[in-house]
Write a structure and sequence with these properties.
The protein is an alpha/beta fold. It folds into two domains: 165 residues, Rossmann fold; 72 residues, no CATH class. It has ten helices and ten strands. Strands 6-7-8-3-9-10 form a six-stranded mixed sheet, with helices on both faces. Strands 2-1-4-5 form a four-stranded antiparallel sheet, with helices on one face. The protein is globular. The two termini are 35 Å apart.
Length: 241
């Protein structure tokens, strides 16, 4: 088993005429939570979408668990036990919360076939998921949709979770629930890659960090070390944590 579950080497991504990623080098250590930080427009979301095959890398390569996935299609990548929560959450608005969860639980065809112990754990983390179980997902508030999106990602055990701004739109109390959820997931040896703008969230959760600017990773290391170095924070992010 390799130490790093996910690795990107020299990854370039073009979207039409636009060259967005300019040789991204990124490692995501197995069993850790890696924060991907950077100013708006730095290339963070494009990096996640390229990992998932939604956009194809034009150069470089991506490996997951030692396997080259650079040219694989998104369903094949998801089939390797990777869950992705995009910034727009990707829920099915016309389906109920329950139906959204059943779709995400690939081994279940009905709600009764979902792992009930895991489902009860999710309900404790995000009570709104249980409260609105039979409601159309499109009727939920923004924060409730975010909780549903993360719940879908964790309804079955995954080897890697890739989540784009999970705290976006959430009230502080729900953010604390989210942090608790990710901590529990880390304890179960799940590897997590998070893009996040909430710096307090990043400090409390991150093991390792990569900072992007202008389509490249310009800093990588310990999250704790970055959190303690205000000069480095200002240099990389234009602000202090």
């Amino acid at each position: 088993m390799t130490q790093n579950l996910l690795e990107l080497h020299g990854v370039h991504t073009h979207i039409g005429a636009y060259h967005i990623l300019h040789g991204v080098d990124l490692v995501v250590p197995r069993g850790q939570l890696t924060m991907l930080l950077g100013r708006n427009g730095a290339g963070k979301t494009t990096t996640l979408r390229t990992i998932m095959g939604l956009w194809q890398a034009s150069q470089g390569h991506i490996t997951f668990n030692g396997q080259d996935i650079t040219k694989k299609h998104t369903p094949q990548i998801a089939g390797l036990n990777i869950a992705y929560v995009p910034e727009n959450m990707g829920i099915f608005a016309d389906l109920t919360v329950k139906e959204n969860m059943v779709l995400a639980a690939r081994s279940a065809k009905t709600a009764a076939q979902i792992d009930q112990a895991r489902l009860q754990w999710i309900f404790k983390l995000f009570p709104a998921v249980e409260k609105f179980w039979n409601h159309p997902a499109g009727k939920l508030s923004g924060g409730q949709k975010q909780m549903l999106a993360v719940s879908r990602a964790i309804v079955e055990p995954r080897d890697l979770l890739i989540i784009d701004e999970p705290s976006k739109g959430l009230a502080p109390a729900i953010i604390n629930n989210m942090i608790d959820a990710f901590r529990q997931l880390k304890e179960s040896d799940v590897t997590i890659l998070l893009v996040e703008q909430n710096i307090s969230f990043a400090k409390r959760l991150g093991d390792t960090v990569a900072v992007m600017d202008n389509g490249r990773v310009v800093h990588a290391g310990s999250m704790a070390a970055l959190a303690e170095d205000e000069a480095l924070q200002r240099s990389l992010l234009g602000l202090a944590l």
